[in-house]
Amino acid sequence: MTSSSLALAAPARAALGSHPLTERYGPILTMVLALIAVWYVAAVAMNWHLVKDGFEREETPYTVSDILAGTMDAERPLLPAPHQIAENFFDSIFGYPPLAPRSLVYHSLVTLSATLLGFVLGAGFGVALALMIVHSRVLERSLLPWIICSQMVPILALAPIFIVVLGALGLQGLLPKAIISAYLCFFPIAIGMVKGFTSPDPLQIELMRTWSATPRQVLWKLRWPAAVPFLFASLKVAITISLIGAIVAELPTGAEAGIGARLLAGSYYGQTVQLWSALVASAVLSWGLISIIALVERGVNRSMGAR
Amino acid sequence: MDPRKFRLGLLLALAAMALAFAAPLGHGAPALLLRPGLWQASTGAAVLFGLAAWFADWRAIVPGLAGVIITASISLLLLRDPGIAGAAAAGFWAIVVAAWLAAAMAVVALAAQRPIRQERRRLINIAVPLLFGATVFYLWEVAVRGFGVPAVLLPSPSAAAARFAASLPVLAGDFNQTFIRGVLIGYTIGCGSGLLVAILAHRFEFLGRGLLPLGNFFSALPLVGIAPIMVMWFGFDWPSKAAVVALVTFFPMLVNAIAGLSAAGHIERDLMRSYAAGPRQSLAKLYLPAALPFIFNALKINATLALIGAIVAEFFGTPTQGIGFRISTEAGRMAIDMVWAEIALAALAGMAFYGFVTLAERATTFWHPSYRT
């Protein structure tokens, strides 16, 4: 999977180094540790002037170690240190009741609901579109090029208009955000499913014909099962895009709640640590959603008899 | 194509034209028969539809299309009448329905054609989606003007196009700020560094095994959220946008390029070894060419991501220029036609960018099986 697995045999290593677990997780762990180390160094370098200026403004005597300590827990640092972000993250999750407006859980739930609703809408629309395209040559030749074109358009740019138009129609809150998410995430699903529905071997389709199967039977007994791997691959892509859509949809509306609103507020008031912990929350959300889909995929694969 | 359904569709269009003569066009507007020139044209279109229904095969395409063009022009001319625009009645909508039905039938007939000659097939492959798109834009225009939808909600395509033509200097400034500075510079930095790190990861296996899972993890994150931080670090002007674009494009390139660099086959690698090629030679002559399809895949993904990243970054603060800035301020001022003009600009830029990458791909990976058919 990675780089050169040349025909050459790997040189013998120490027993610990060649253990499968260390082989697998050793490099990742090293990279993560290196990343954190670089982060700390960068935090010191970027916050140095900030802290130093602070000391000089107050005209208090200071030493190098004072500045070093200051860069680690500055109130509004340019780059907060990892432990500050972790502290703020856990504090804003467990420090308040889950539905308090200062709690990150509350904001995550607001964004999550828009994400999930948009994902369901987009997935349904994408699968329906794929079904129509697979069954109609006219649609395939007239609609498919436009669907592909629509993805070269930076669709997120449409977000403010959607919000304005839907707001003028009296729709506010969850639905406009969900529609933006759905609009963003239907595409990978539609394309993936078109590929999946057309993935059965021509021989198998001919076999269905010799059994005089109706189009519906071909769909349920051949095309759907063949499309399942494509479905999950595109669902994983789509759920991330859906989350991005929900977050971005919260930006131009000046929404009061949600991860996007939290990002916007953090950037307006210079609350860097809050900003970063909102980012961490979005990362956790995205990772969690993908893992849930991966779990469902494993279950479905097992029930379909795949090993 | 079922000729009976096809004939039925065209006969319905013919019936709709007949209805247009009988029903009122708008509230208080004179009927179609009282308009010299227009009623003759309508009769002509109806005759063309009848002719197309008579043929009901490939010969129906030319009269059908001619009828579509005539009916569409009639309906657009009628919209100039203030008694019809915003107050259209059954007769007017009958003309629109006739145009739409006949256009749909023409698309169906065109899509069913499978000419033997290569050029003709290519022409049809372009004509079908174009006709489809033109129909959608026509219906949008007619619906907005016929129902009198307020421009605050949804402007007609012609209004957006007029605004586009009228504000070319503003659009050029925004294009320069967002695309030339933000997107292109960030895209070059992001894709270039992604490729470099991938080459390093390919060279040193340990690095690769650590970076690939991390890259997969990061490319699944909502990275545009980093935009406010970049604005804080690099200021309001284009460097912050370029930084967001670079960050957003880095990980897809990294993941794809690592996959591509390990796509070279065993036999080719053994051949390079038996030639005693150095690492640099085998990189330039084997691994990079073999990785090109993957790299271009990343370049295409990134072309869209880059534009989105730059526009979103502009929501967090800009100098008073840029596509994203203009969209958010004009949407706030309810100048929706300007917003649509900016979206058209972004769409054109995005498509041109994507098309350019595709052309470059065709020129450099002509040897790949997917282009040799």
Write the SSE topology:
The complex is a heterodimer of chains A (307) and B (373).
Chain A: H1 20-58, H2 64-72, H3 82-94, H4 104-135, H5 137-152, H6 159-168, H7 174-197, H8 202-210, H9 215-249, H10 259-268, H11 272-303
Chain B: H1 3-22, H2 38-55, H3 61-78, H4 90-112, H5 118-147, H6 157-166, H7 168-203, H8 205-219, H9 227-234, H10 238-261, H11 266-274, H12 279-314, H13 323-332, H14 336-364
Helix pairs in contact in B: 1-2, 1-4, 2-3, 3-4, 4-5, 6-14, 7-8, 7-10, 7-12, 8-10, 9-10, 9-12, 10-12, 12-14, 13-14
Structure description:
- The complex is a heterodimer of chains A (307) and B (373).
- In chain A, helix 4 runs antiparallel to helix 9.
- The N terminus of chain A is likely disordered.
- Chain A is built from eleven helices and no strands.
- With 307 residues, chain A is mainly alpha-helical.
- Chain B has 373 residues and is mainly alpha-helical.
- Chain B has two domains: 146 residues, no CATH class; 208 residues, MetI-like (MetI-like fold, Orthogonal Bundle).
- Helices cover 77% and strands 0% of the residues of chain B.
- Chain B contains 14 helices and no strands.
- Chain B starts with a helix and ends in a 9-residue tail after the last helix.
- At the A-B interface, helix 1, helix 5, helix 6, helix 9 and helix 10 of A face helix 4, helix 5, helix 7, helix 8 and helix 9 of B.
* The first-level CATH class name of the largest domain in chain B: Mainly Alpha
Task: Name the structural class of chain B.
Answer: mainly alpha
Oligomer: heterodimer
Distance between the termini of chain B: 28 Å
Percentage of residues in DSSP E strands of chain A: under 5%
Gist of the model:
With 307 residues, chain A is mainly alpha-helical.
List its traits:
heterodimer; A: 307 residues; mainly alpha; MetI-like fold; 2 domains; 11 helices; elongated; disordered N terminus; B: 373 residues; 14 helices; 77% helix; flat
